[in-house]
Amino acid sequence: MISGSEAKTILVCDDEPHLREMLSEYLCERGFGVKQAENADALFEVIEQTPPDIVILDINMPGTDGLTALRQLRVDSAIPVIMLSAAGEVVDRIVGLEMGADDYVAKPVDLRELEARIKAALRRQSFSAAEPDVPMRATGRVPFGRCELDLDGAKLFGENGEEISITAMEFSLLRVFAQNRGRVLNRDQLLEQAHDRGWEHFDRSIDLRISRLRRKIEVHPSKPDTIRTVRGIGYIFD
Question: Domains in the chain and their CATH numbers?
């Protein structure tokens, strides 16, 4: 159970009423506050009124689908989003990750797995302290290509000072690179230090995240010189 002072609000967006009710009942019993939305329009109405701490978003909905809703949400919001996708829809999962989803859960939903992934996403959102084997925590502002990362405020700024929207996982990855400047990190190290062990070992998860980050920070994303690939090993921020 989650104490009242730590209770988080979850917004469940799915066009299936029975699924919304099942998720709401299960999560409420575990101390979360839960709101429901039957489609993308209702999703944005709820967010505009009272932004939740995390969104559970179905991919396949009539009208505006979940991926389109995610794209719209990511224009100006970094609220963690866990996508619901039918089993086997790998392409949708890849697209969702590229567009800024924080995680995904396959249908039929395993409630315990969903709860674990929610808690993992919320931990990342809270920017918890680094693991013992992580170097001393970096602070202040760190240049990343044409951008600047505010480690204390958990924000990314463009070359003209404008704030660029990043997800909690994207911030965690940038922070790990800032803490390990000049060190080559493999994918397992990035997952571990970014507090992302709740993920399945989805082959391209880290690669997709870094590809998305490069489009934000690199002068020439197709020829990155800020976060570079070390072939056969991983990545380096140099």
Answer: 4-125 (3.40.50.2300), 141-237 (1.10.10.10)
